[in-house]
Amino acid sequence: MTQQPKALQLADELEMWTQGEPAAEELRRQHAEIERLTKLCDDLRMAASMQKRIDELKASPSAQGQWVGLTDEQINQYDYEYRDILYDVEKMLRENNA
What's the number of domains the chain is made of? Predict the structure, then answer.
């Protein structure tokens, strides 16, 4: 069982001692917003990394000649949710360069 984040533990204690004051709910809301924004930042960093790699592939001399796709090792460095995107981009590039 994973331990509850400290902010949520504090919200529970605050609610217990203040008998339902809105401060505890606000603390929970702010924690959820921080979690959402953290995930969004991670997604944006991953997207920027993928765009950089796409730009590198487009600019490489091999992009002008024979198609050279990503290796499994290059694709495996990304989370599962991004691998499908990489495969789709690679497929589109391959079709455009055929």
Answer: 1
